[in-house]
Amino acid sequence: MLRISRSNKIPTFSSEHPPVAHCQDGDTVIFETNDCFDGAVGPDGVRDWEGKKLGKYMGNPATGPLYVEGAEPGDALCVEILDIQIRSWGAMGCGFGEAGFINIPGEYETRAFHYDDGFVKIGGKQIPINPMIGVIGVAPAGEGISTYTPDAHGGNMDCNRIVKGAKILFPVAAPGALLAMGDLHALMGDGEVFQYGLETSGEVTVRVSVIKNAGVKQPTLYQAGKAMVVASAKTYDDAIRLALESMFDLLVSHGWDRTEAGMLMSMKCSLAICQTVDPQVTVRAMMDEDLIVAE
Questions:
Q1: CA–CA dist 269, 294 (Å, integer)
Q2: 106 pLDDT exceeds 90?
Q3: Predicted local distance difference test score (pLDDT) of residue 116
Q4: C-alpha pair distances (Å), 236 with each of 40, 239, 274
Q5: Who contacts 56 (Cβ-Cβ below 8 Å, separation ≥6)?
Q6: What's the mean pLDDT in 50-64?
Q7: Is 90 exceeded by the pLDDT of residue 182?
Q8: C-alpha–C-alpha distance, residues 96 and 142, integer Å
Q9: 220-241, pLDDT tens digit by residue?
Q10: N or C: which end of the chain has fewer CB within 10 A?
């Protein structure tokens, strides 16, 4: 099985990055990932600020990119998350003065949390972990996009539905798709409201396949009987519009009458915020998967 080392890390999603590995349509691949701190925070919660100033660490690195044979612009790359294995601890920083906490003052610090038994302990509570992928995507059309920023190519979507068992379709914009991923979280609520999830590193096993001429415009996610369109933009209004338009297109492409597609969405489509702290906000529009195809 092909394995991509975490030493192959990139700061942007871009067609300019040479692929570090090639695979065939239908292959299974293991990605070793770094955490968002790139190792600057240790299991004691101490951060190497001096090393950061000296450029020792990459911000929010993604592992890759992987070239998938046969993937061409206009296709979709289907990525099935077969497994996520994470280390036994994670770290978090603070979001005082940022995003939803912009009016709440506080000092910046980092803390580490250990979860050998599958639970993270905080404030006397034990909360079960739920490993997810924060950054995953393909090369965009045009200029490269930072691994901090989500967009139509995927990237830093921080959608907590990207877990083991999920399947994601990405619009291919460059030959080979150039898949990369990183920024695992042991646990993260919708919104990632305090700037960080429980940041960790690990290994992700995926199966990749090419869907020819798929017409996918935004990352489309299938998980636990739900179909979701994930969309990112500068404003919530624009992200919501993109998500709803793409969900509407998905229904119409599967045989729904245009008017009834809109009516069905008002009956059964739910909106949720994935993250509110990145350079662009991310939302998802979600439907029961068994409603996508018209009778």
A1: 15
A2: yes
A3: 83
A4: 32, 5, 11
A5: 40, 48
A6: 96
A7: yes
A8: 35
A9: 999 999 999 999 999 999 999 9
A10: C
Query: What are the percentages of helix, strand and coil residues in the chain, rounded to 5?
Result: 15, 40, 45
Residues 83-104 as b or e (16 or more Cβ within 10 Å = b): ebebeebbbbbbbbeebebeee
CB atoms within 10 A of CB 192: 25
Task: For residue 69, give the amino acid letter.
Answer: E
What residues does 119 pair with on adjacent strands? 128
* Domain boundaries along the sequence of the chain: 2-214
| 216-253 residues labelled b (16+ CB within 10 A) or e (exposed) | bbbbbbbbeebbbbbbbbeeeeebbebbbebbbbbbee
Is 289 in a helix, a strand, or coil? Answer: helix
Q: Is residue 25 a contact partner of residue 188, using CB atoms and an 8 Å limit?
A: no
Rounded Cα distance between 2 and 111, Å, is: 34
The encoded tokens of residue 139 equal 């090369």
**Whole-angstrom Cα distance, residue 17 to residue 11?**
10
| Topology of the domain covering 2-214 | Jelly Rolls (2.60.120)
In this structure, what is the dihedral angle of CA atoms 141, 143, 145, 151, given to the nearest 10 degrees?
-40
User: Residue range 75-92: average pLDDT?
Assistant: 98
Longest pairwise C-alpha distance within the chain: 61
Query: Smallest Cα–Cα separation from 197: which of 132, 148, 149?
Result: 132
Please count the residues of the chain. Answer: 295
Contact, 257 vs 265, CB < 8 A? no
Helix, strand or coil, per DSSP, at residue 89: strand
